[in-house]
Design a protein that fits this description.
Layout (H helix, E strand, L loop, with lengths): L1 H13 L12 H21 L7 H23 L6 H11 L3 H14 L10 H12 L6 H13 L6 H11 L4 H23 L10 H15 L1
Helix pairs in contact: 1-2, 1-3, 2-5, 3-4, 3-5, 5-6, 7-8, 7-10, 9-10
InterPro entries: PUB2-4-like_N (IPR057314)
Protein name: (rape) hypothetical protein
Organism: Brassica napus
Length: 222
């Protein structure tokens, strides 16, 4: 069941390639990142849909399915007046968790005593493993966190850092920055309502911390 659920989840995500805003900045690069990670996994699981997974791997598959589903929801729920910064922070919280499960899966297949298809020979599996292990992505969320820290300490951020954040979140014009400021204000109101209703915010463990970050981000984009 875990295998079929993961395959369905990945297939559903990959179908986003025809979405209208998928080729816009910054969505295209994040779509490609998830695609790069999940596509080999989909091929491997389809070819081995009858395998019996270990309990630990079953749990990993469930978590990966949830992360891929959540990634898809982030892409499908975004609209032109949504916050790009919020999207980036959310998607960058998901992508780093995916490689571990994928590596575990390929290592499991390598050690499996089942007769595997030719496409999953030990050499092919090792090649996939090496590729996944060497994938490296710059996370702009760490740059944003640094900028917020500098702002709190009244030592920045520098114009160069603000330009870097803008370029990596698709905020390059005054109009885009204005839309982002309005979107962040709306997101801040949602977070405040969540705190008042004692409902957790997914990205951060504390709604209060999340509200503080959104408030500071508003200063950065204005």
């Amino acid at each position: 069941m875990e295998i079929s659920a993961l395959v369905d989840s990945i297939s559903s995500f990959l179908n986003l390639s025809s979405s209208r805003h998928i080729d816009l900045d910054p969505f295209d690069k994040y779509y490609k990142r998830v695609q790069e990670l999940s596509k080999p996994m989909a091929v491997a699981t389809v070819l081995n849909s009858d395998l019996v997974l270990e309990e630990k791997l079953c749990k990993s598959f469930q978590e990966l399915t949830q992360d891929v589903d959540h990634s898809r929801d982030l892409f499908t729920s975004w609209h032109p007046f949504s916050s790009k910064v919020y999207f980036v922070l959310q998607i960058e919280s998901l992508i780093p968790k995916m490689p571990d499960t994928i590596v575990d899966t390929f290592q499991f297949l390598k050690s499996s005593k089942h007769d595997l298809p030719d496409e999953l020979s030990p050499a092919s599996l090792q090649k996939c493993l090496e590729k996944i292990k060497h994938l490296s992505y710059e996370e702009i969320s760490s740059v944003i966190d640094g900028a917020l820290r500098d702002h709190r300490e009244a030592v920045g951020p520098t114009p160069e850092i603000l330009v870097k954040i803008g370029e990596n979140t698709g905020l390059r014009s005054n109009q885009e920055i204005l839309i982002e400021a309005v979107a962040l204000e709306r997101q801040k109101e949602i977070a405040e309502q969540s705190e008042n209703n004692a409902v957790g915010v997914e990205l951060y463990s504390s709604p209060y911390i999340y509200i503080c970050k959104l408030t500071l981000l508003l200063y950065l984009v204005q």
